[in-house]
Design goal:
Length: about 240
């Protein structure tokens, strides 16, 4: 993602939402607590694209209360407003980007990299994953979540000629699909695309689970939750991968 230009102005705009949302934050925290519980030593976790630090703060509290080894957290975000808000939540946060010269973190020093619904906002996804792999220790874990282009409702929308949810054709407004909020999505993934990209980037043991989408209309939420059992149809893709030993 370039450091200047329209995208920079978009993410520094106070009207741009930086929060992860409580459901996504708790889901991320639970996954991290499970990793910490299975570890034999304290884990170092870097939350790339931490936004306002809300999800990182929830993960810190959840891991602290869980059995097993504790975890050390660092949040990284491109947005000055995001880093400032994260620090106000007592999260250790630094400003940084996956673009050259890269994250301000040493190579092979991190046990877990979290990229929670950030990859869809990036121009250079290959470079971002290369940076994640660089800072991870051998056998380190990448936790990545992203909207599913092939979600069950998007297949129905496309069938009747409606622009799929999560996609955007303009930074100025929403055109051709439901919704009103521009969130800066540049890349959208299917399950197959996400797995293929991670494997080509040198990750192994790639697995995908499904998660629900909070904006699905209430009557359809039971169906949305049921289809999480079929990640190719789920609203959100939860991807876990590792670096080779």
């Amino acid at each position: 993602m370039p450091a200047t230009g329209p995208l920079q102005r978009f993410y520094e705009d106070p009207a741009t939402r930086l929060s992860s949302g409580s459901e996504r934050a708790q889901r991320q925290a639970t996954m991290l607590a499970e990793l910490a519980a299975s570890a034999r030593r304290p884990l170092t976790v870097v939350d790339v694209g931490c936004g306002d630090g809300m999800a990182t703060a929830v993960a810190i509290a959840t891991c602290a209360a869980a059995p097993g080894a504790p975890a050390r957290f660092v949040g990284v975000d491109w947005s000055v407003a995001g880093v400032t808000a994260a620090r106000a939540r007592q999260v250790v946060a630094v400003r940084g980007s996956v673009d050259p010269p890269g994250l301000p973190i040493g190579s092979a020093t991190v046990d877990v990299v979290v990229m929670s619904e950030i990859i869809e906002h990036l121009v250079d996804t290959d470079g971002a994953l290369a940076e994640a792999r660089r800072i991870l220790v051998p056998g380190g874990t990448l936790l990545l979540s992203t909207p599913n282009l092939a979600a069950w409702f998007n297949r129905g929308l496309l069938a009747v000629g409606v622009q799929p949810l999560f996609t955007e054709v303009s930074m100025a407004g929403i055109f051709g699909r439901p919704g009103k909020e521009v969130v800066g999505h540049l890349r959208l993934f299917t399950r197959r695309a996400a797995v293929g990209l991670l494997r080509s980037s040198g990750f192994v043991d790639v697995s995908v689970a499904g998660a629900p989408y909070h904006d699905v209309p209430r009557p359809l939420r039971p169906l949305d939750r049921f289809l999480c059992h079929f990640p190719g149809l789920s609203s959100i893709l939860l991807v876990t991968a590792r670096t080779p030993h």
